[in-house]
Amino acid sequence: MSGRYWSHLLRAALDANACGGAPPAAGTVVDLRVASGEVLARVAVGGRVHRVSLILSVLEPPQWDTVAAALGGQPLFRARLLAGRLPAEVARVFDVLGLPLLPRGPAEPVVTCSCPEWGGVCGHAAAVLDALAGRVDADPFLLTAWRGCDRGALLAAVRAHARAGREAVGDADAAPPVRVAARPLPEDPDEFWRAPALPAPPARAEPPPPLPADGPLAALAPLYERLRRG
Ligand SMILES: [Zn+2]
């Protein structure tokens, strides 16, 4: 896969969204910062400085949790992500999940500039978009951060899903996996350690039948008993 794949994808998305028309201003882009939902930068041109903002809608925590579960459940993606890389094929995972990573649709990103001439995508905004595209190949996690989940939060969520998957498959004595969503810590610290509610047992009127003492399910007996006791 080309080392410039992410910037190609971003430029193609911007062109498709009519953000690629204006030629970049012949200025200097300084202080480009990528935050959740917004890229901010200043563009210095001929002694004047203009502020540019590129606003993108963010994915909600449950949507990021879905992404992390999909990536954490795939050995190839999981290994590369946990090594700190974001393979370009990840863009396809977002597509399959029906979630946007790159700007999508004519309203994304919402571009504003402090220059008086601004009435669309001015040269200053084009320069910032160009500068952003120039950075995403070296650090594609800028794209996830722009969409609302920075590198650290995404890798933590992928790691949690990978761990939960291993425990479900191979460690019968492990506690039920706690699904960690990419969301802020709760106000009450006790909430942090509380697992999401378990699904209701299939038949409350009569206790579930005991597991057979032998066979492949026997190894799940301790966990099963814990779930039965609720
Ligand atoms: Zn401008």
UniProtKB/TrEMBL annotation:
SWIM-type domain mapped to chain residues: 98-133
InterPro entries tied to this protein: Znf_SWIM
Region listing for Disordered, in residue ranges: 182-217
Species this chain originates from: Thermobifida halotolerans
UniProt keywords, alphabetically: Metal-binding, Zinc, Zinc-finger
GO molecular function: zinc ion binding
PANTHER family recorded: SLR1429 PROTEIN
Name of protein: SWIM-type domain-containing protein
Keyword Zinc: yes
Domain of life: Bacteria
UniProt biased composition (Pro residues): 198-213
